[in-house]
Amino acid sequence: MAFCGMRAKSEFEIIGLLTKRLRTRGRGVIQGVGDDCACVAAGGELLLISNDDMRENVHFRRDFPPRGVGFKLIAANASDILACGGVPKWINLSIGVPADLDESWLIELYDGVNDALERFGVTATGGNLTRCESVQLGGAILGTTTRFVSRRGAKAGDDLWLSAPLGASRLGLEALLKGSADETLAKMHLYPRLALALQPLIARYASSAIDISDGFLGDLGHLAEASGVGFEVSDPKALIADEALLAIGDFDKALDFALHSGEEYQLLFTAPSDAHKTILDAGAIAIGRAIADRKLISGGKTYAPRGFSHF
Predict the structure, then answer these.
(1) Is 38 within a domain?
(2) Which listed residue, 23, 126, 178, 272, has the most CB atoms within 10 A of its CB?
(3) What confidence category does residue 11 fall into, taking pLDDT thresholds of 50, 70 and 90?
(4) Which tens digit of pLDDT belongs to each residue from 89-119?
C-alpha cells in the first residue's frame, strides 16, 4: 500500500481499512473497535480499555507549558472511560523523547501527569520510554463500569445532554498558538474540567454517549450514525461557553466557534425523558432531543457532521 495516497482517505476510512486486517472478536469481548472504549468481561467485572496519544506539532508544541501538556494527556484518556459510563482507574504511559530534550521539560510534564492522576483518581501502573525525533506521548487507560454505555443506543425522543458549554478549549488553543502569556486562557485548553460527577448517572441512565474530542458536530454525527437517528438542538445558546461569546462578541460566529471546538473533553449523551429531572438536577445541560430523521438540526438550520480528522 502506497502511503502517498493516504490524504485521499479520511481518518475513519483508514481505521476501517486497517481494522479489517485484525482479529477483533474473541471470548469476553463485549465491545471492540468502534467506540470510545473497548469493553471486556473479566473476573466478574466489566473492564473498559482505551488509549489516547499526543504528538508534538500535532496536539501541542514544545513551547506550550509542559505541566499543562501532561495534565491534558491524562484528561484525554480518562474522558474516554467516562464517556462509556466508567470510572478511570489505571494507566500505562508510553513516552518517546528526543535525546536532546531538556530534562526539566520532562520533569515538569510528569508533574502535570501526576496532577491529573490525583485529580481523577487514576494510578500509573507502568509504561515505556523510547527515543524519538519529536516528543510523543501516549496512554493506555483502564477503568471499570457497572454498565457499558456505547454510541449505539439513542432512540428518537431521547433527551440530548451536554456536560458543559463549549468553545473555551479552542479559545485557549488559539492563545497558545499565538504565544500569549495569558495563563487563564492557556488553562482553558490544557486543563479540561472532566464531568466526573455525571459518571454514575451516565452509567445508570444514558442510552448513548461520546466525549467531545473532534468537535461537537463531528462527535454528534458519530452518535447519529451509530444509533441510526438524527438530532435537533433546541437551545443553541446553551452550547456556547461564556468566555467564547465574550471574546468573539457576535452570537452566530461564537456558535460556529463552539460547534467546531475540539479537545473539549465534555460529555455528549442521550437518555430517556423520564430521567430528565434527575440529570438536570445533577448539572447537565439539556440541549435538544434525538429525532427519527437522520439530520443534525440547530436553530432551523441543517448541519453536516463535520469534525477534526487527522487526514
Answers:
(1) yes
(2) 272
(3) low
(4) 999 999 999 999 999 999 999 999 999 999 9
C-alpha cell, 146 = 457497572
Q: Coil, helix or strand for 73?
A: helix
Number of domains in the chain: 2
**Radius of gyration over every alpha carbon of the chain, rounded to an integer in angstroms:** 19
Domain co-membership, 43 together with 140: yes
Query: Partners of 39 in the beta sheet?
Result: 31, 48
pLDDT tens across 259-285, in order? Answer: 999 999 999 999 999 999 999 999 999
Position of cell 455525571? 198
What range does the domain containing 286 cover? 159-303
CA-CA distance, 212 to 198, in Å (whole number)? Answer: 15
The cell for 263 is 479537545
Are 36 and 154 within 8 A, CB to CB? no
In a domain, 249, yes or no: yes
- Distance CA(164)–CA(238), nearest Å, equals 9
Question: Which grid cell is 175?
Answer: 492563545
> Half-sphere exposure of 77 toward its Cβ, with a 13 Å CA cutoff?
34
In a domain, residue 150? The reply is: no
> Both 68 and 200 in a single domain?
no
Does one domain contain both 132 and 164?
no
Q: DSSP letter at 52?
A: E
